[in-house]
Write a structure and sequence with these properties.
about 110 residues; globular; DUF4144
Length: about 110
């Protein structure tokens, strides 16, 4: 079961997408073409494969990827670096949930 909120890491792109709920996921990802390497990362670091299934919309499936706080922090640092708006040394989180919540208002 997905622990919301989440982030989406698209293959080959440092920018992350914040996703607050299943409905937000459906709305945000409608029409996107997903790669096998795109991943939804939930608030406990669990990875999920994402795919569009015709009229059903977006479906997710748990994969064997589990990220640590430091790995999620590194993704967020790369995301912020790509935007060139924040000092990377100031980015530090105590939990994955806190890290994901930090992206709530950055989109």
């Amino acid at each position: 079961m997905i622990q919301w909120p989440c982030i989406i890491k698209l293959e080959g792109d440092d920018e992350l997408m914040y996703v607050g709920s299943k409905k937000h996921l459906q709305d945000e990802c409608e029409g996107l073409i997903f790669s096998d390497l795109d991943v939804l990362i939930d608030s406990v670091g669990q990875g999920f494969t994402i795919r569009e299934v015709g009229n059903k919309g977006i479906e997710t499936e748990k994969n064997n990827q589990s990220l640590s706080v430091s790995e999620v922090t590194s993704l967020i640092q790369a995301h912020e670096f790509s935007k060139a708006e924040m000092c990377l040394t100031k980015i530090h989180f105590l939990s994955i949930s806190e890290a994901i919540q930090s992206l709530t208002f950055t989109d």
